[in-house]
């Protein structure tokens, strides 16, 4: 049984590493094209930062995994550092799906009330707040170095878990409301980022939430259910690696071969002009 367990963990470990490397290539292509070759608008800014957060998570995971193979050991700092990228991506996906949902439900009001640089400001705040939200409970619980403080650990960790679950609920509820509204109520064409957001939210529900559970109950799961941590890590890598495939699927045209740049331009590009008071076209046309 011990040999079978070692074989299983090795297979999952190298499969996770392979998925991470593939995801690095996919998110790197999205970053390159969306950052330098595709015109960005309000929603494509979220897609750019989301690809950056996924790239950070996968890069950290791949680097620490390779270091583990080379050195044969790994400490808790690995998990904390990689989780920063994952938590940032969760924040960004929640903001992305919520803003797209609001823009579809209340297009006229949203167009007139939205400041011009909302997307950039929100993404900047998310990046700035992700570090203390993850590092404070990790420091209090002794995951960065020795010296855990039990009461502070419980308080910070409970606050972090609550916030992460709230973000996951916001993303899922916004995606569900957007799906119901577009499918049953709206007479307008589908918003441009509809497929990308719904696919990302579905990936979060199936593959991302187990990693949040792992962060929440890590010491307990390592002892009582040792099979869960490697599987949760594999699913988290699938969650962050498959978003470029969702963008490609949303942007490609059936039975037509096109360059990757053209496909991503159709899926993530935004030709909306920004005037001095905000958007000059209805948000539903984005």
UniProtKB/TrEMBL annotation:
The keyword Transmembrane applies. It is a multi-pass membrane protein. Its main location: membrane. The chain crosses the membrane at residues 12-34, 46-71, 77-98, 119-136, 156-181, 193-215, 227-248. Residues 26-247 form the G-protein coupled receptors family 1 profile domain. Keywords: Cell membrane, G-protein coupled receptor, Membrane, Receptor, Transducer, Transmembrane, Transmembrane helix. One of its GO terms (cellular component) is plasma membrane. Belongs to the G-protein coupled receptor 1 family. Mas subfamily. It comes from the Eukaryota. It is found in: Cell membrane. GO terms for molecular function: G protein-coupled receptor activity. The keyword Transmembrane applies. InterPro entries: GPCR_Rhodpsn, GPCR_Rhodpsn_7TM, MRGPCRFAMILY, MRGPCRG. This is Mas-related G-protein coupled receptor member G.
């Amino acid at each position: 049984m011990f040999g079978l367990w070692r074989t299983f963990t090795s297979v999952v470990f190298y499969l996770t590493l392979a998925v991470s490397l593939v995801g690095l290539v996919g998110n790197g292509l999205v970053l390159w094209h969306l950052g330098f070759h595709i015109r960005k608008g309000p929603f494509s800014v979220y897609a750019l930062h989301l690809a950056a957060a996924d790239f950070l998570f996968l890069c950290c995971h791949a680097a620490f995994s390779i270091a583990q193979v080379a050195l044969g050991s790994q400490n808790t700092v690995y998990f904390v550092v990689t989780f920063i990228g994952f938590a940032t991506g969760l924040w960004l996906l929640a903001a992305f799906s919520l803003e797209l949902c609001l823009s579809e439900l209340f297009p006229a009001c949203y167009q007139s009330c939205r400041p011009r640089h909302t997307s950039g400001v929100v993404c900047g705040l998310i990046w700035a707040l992700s570090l203390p939200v993850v590092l404070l409970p990790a420091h209090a619980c002794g995951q960065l170095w020795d010296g855990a403080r039990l009461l502070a650990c419980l308080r910070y960790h409970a606050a972090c878990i609550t916030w992460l679950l709230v973000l996951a609920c916001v993303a899922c509820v916004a995606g569900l409301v957007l799906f119901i509204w577009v499918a049953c109520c709206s007479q307008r064409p589908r918003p441009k980022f509809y497929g990308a957001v719904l696919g990302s939210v579905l990936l979060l529900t199936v593959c991302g939430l187990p990693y949040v559970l792992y962060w929440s109950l890590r010491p307990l799961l390592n002892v009582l259910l040792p099979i869960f941590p490697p599987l949760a890590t594999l699913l988290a890598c699938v969650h962050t690696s498959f978003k470029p495939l969702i963008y490609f699927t949303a942007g490609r045209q059936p039975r037509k071969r096109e360059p990757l740049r053209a496909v991503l331009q159709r899926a993530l590009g935004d030709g909306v002009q920004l005037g001095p008071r905000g958007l000059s076209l209805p948000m539903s046309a984005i």
